[in-house]
Amino acid sequence: MATDANRQSVEMSRIVAWMTTCFLVLPILIVIPVSFTPKRYLSMPAGDWSLRHYEVLISGGWLSSIGDSLLVAICSALLALAMGTLFAVGHWRLNNGVTRNLRLLLLLPMIVPPIVHAVAFYQAWSILDLLDTYLGLILVHTMKALPFVVLSVTASLVNLDPRLEQASRSLGASSRQTLFYILLPQVRPGMLAGGIFAFITSWDEIIVAIFITSRAVYTLPKRIWDGLFDNVDPAIAALGTIMIIITAIGLLIKDRYEKAQKT
Amino acid sequence: MKDALSFESVTKKYGEFTALDNVSLDIKAGEFMTLLGPSGSGKTTMLMTIGGFVEPSAGHVTLDGQRITHLPPENRNFGLVFQGYALFPHLTVWENVFYPLRVRGMRKAEAEPKVRDVLDLIQLSHLAERFPKQLSGGQQQRVALARALVFSPELLLLDEPLSALDRALRKDLQRELKDLHERVGTTFIYVTHDQEEALSMSDRIAILRDGQIEQLGTPSQLYEKPSSIFVANFLGKSNFVPVDDLTVEGGEVRYSVGQDRFRLSRGDMSIPQSGELSLALRPERLTLYANHKDAPENCIAGKVVKVTYFGQLYEAIVSTQAAGDLLVTVDLAQNEPRIGDQVWLGWAIDSGVILAGRPVESDDAYAG
Fold this sequence. Notes:
The complex is a heterodimer of chains A (263) and B (368).
Chain A: H1 2-29, H2 31-35, H3 52-58, H4 62-94, H5 97-111, H6 114-128, H7 134-158, H8 162-170, H9 175-186, H10 188-203, H11 207-212, H12 220-231, H13 235-262
Helix pairs in contact in A: 3-13, 4-7, 4-10, 5-7, 7-10, 8-9
Chain B: E1 3-14, E2 17-28, E3 32-36, H1 43-51, E4 58-63, E5 66-67, E6 78-81, H2 93-102, H3 108-121, H4 137-149, E7 155-159, H5 167-184, E8 187-192, H6 195-201, E9 204-209, E10 212-217, H7 219-224, H8 229-234, E11 239-249, E12 252-257, E13 260-265, E14 277-281, E15 287-289, E16 299-309, E17 313-320, E18 324-331, E19 342-346, E20 353-356
Parallel strand pairs in B: 3-8, 3-9, 6-7, 7-8
Antiparallel strand pairs in B: 1-2, 1-4, 4-5, 9-10, 11-12, 11-14, 12-13, 14-20, 15-19, 16-17, 16-19, 17-18
Helix pairs in contact in B: 2-3, 2-4, 3-4
C-alpha cells in the first residue's frame, strides 16, 4: 500500500513538472512556426512555408546589429569581470566598513529601477558627450553587469579558506602572485557564472540603449524593438528561432561536458 | 648557540583585549622551541607575529639581530605549516611543493631535483601526481611539511600541525617530526596545546598564559620544577598539598602538613615564603608502603579509596587525614593496591616543589 501511494505521488509530481515545463516553454516555441510564414507580418503559416525572413537576417541591418550587440556585450562583460572580481577579492581580504559600503554602492544598479537609471544616464552622458557611442553604452552595461559578477565571485569566495592566502604569502609569493596562482583559480566557477550573467545582461538590455543610442550604435534588442514598432516584422521570429537553437546547443554541450567530467 | 629569533617586549592588543603582554623570548638557532598553552593564551598570535601576519602594537621581533617587525610575510623566508594544512586544492602534490620555488622564479626542470628530494624525505614521491583531497590527513600533513621545507627556510613555524589527526597517527608523526628536525637542522617553532606532544618533542618549552610567558625551560625543568601551580597543573598531573609553618635553614626547607613536619632539600629552588603555600607532588614521586617502618622519613598515613588499572601501571587514590585525597601511580612490579588497604605514602626529601598559592578547584588546566 505504502509503495502504491508512493508511486502515485511520484506520478503526480511528474505530471505537475511536465505541465510547468509546457507553461514555460510553449509560448517561446510559438516563434518557430511563425518564423516560417511567407507573409510580411507576424502570423502562423497556413500550409505554405517560406525562408524569406531568414534571408532578411543575413542581409539588411540585422547582421550589423548582432555585431554591435556582441561587441558591447563582450567588452562590458570583460570589464565587469575584471573589476568585479578584483573588488570581490579585495572585499574578501579587507572586509571593513569601507568595502562593505562600497559593496552596497556596487549593487545599486540592481536596485534602482532601470527607467530611472536610463534617464540619469541620458542626462549624464549628454554632458560627457557619450551619447550614441560604443564607449558610452559599454560603460553603462559594465555598471549594470557589475553586481552579478560581484555577487557570484563573492559567493565562491565564501568557502575559500583564508589560510590559503596566508600559506601562499608565507611561501614567498607576492600579493600579485597569490592573486593569479591561488585566488583566481579558486574562484573560477564564480567568475564563469558572473561573466555569463554579465554578457546576458548586456546582450538583452534595451531600456538604456533606447535612451542613449540612436543610429551609430544599434544593438539587437533595439532593432527588434524598432522592427516590432514599424511593421511587426517576422524576421524577429526567425531571429528568435536561431537564438533558441543556439541556446539549446549550448545546454547540450554543457550537459555532455559535465557528464564527461563525472566519469 | 646564537639566537636565531628574538621577541623584544612584544605587545599585541586587539581593542581592549591584550593577546600578547610585553613578551620577550630568545630562540636559539637550530632549536626545537614549543609554545604551549591553553586556547586564548596567545601562542598562535605569537607564531603569526613571527610569520609576519600579525603586527605587534609595541616591541620588536629580530632575526639575527635585524629588526623584521614590519617585514611582510613573503619577504621573511619562513616556512609555515598551518593547522588544517592549507594545501592548494587545485594543485597536485608536486605542484604544491613546487609552488614556493615557482614564485621565486625557478623553472620546473630546475626545481625537479629539489622537489624530488623533499618528497623522498617525507616518503610521498609515489603520490606526487595526486591532488590534496585524494590524500589521507597524515599524508596531507607531510605534504604541508614538504612545501614549507623545500625552499630551505630559516625557520619552520608549525601551528598545531597534528591536532586534526587521530591519536595513533599523531604519535607516529611526532616521531617523524623530531627526526626531520634532527636531519634538516632548521629552527622549529611549534605551537600546541597538547602537553604530551610538547614534552616529547621540544628542546625548550615556553608555557603561555594570558598573553605572557609563565615559564620557560627544558621539558624536564618544567615538569620537575614548575614555577607555579598553573604550570604544574598544565604539564602532567600533580597533587597539591597545603603547607604551613615553612622555615628555610641553609639548604633545607621544613614544612608542616597538618600536625606533621616534613623535610625538603632545597637544591637551587627559590622558595616563596609568604602567603598561602602548596607542595606540588607528582603522583609517580609517591610510593605506597604497607608498614611504617619501611616508609621514608617523609610519609603520611592513608587509606586506598580508588584503584584504576592502566596496563603499564595502576593509579590509586589514597585518602589522608592531613593532605586530603592524593593520586599515586603504582607500577606493576609493586603489589596491586586494593581498596580499603591501610597504607603509608612516602616521598623522598628531594621530591616536590613549594609553590605560592593554592589550587583553584575548577581549574581548566587539566583539559590539555
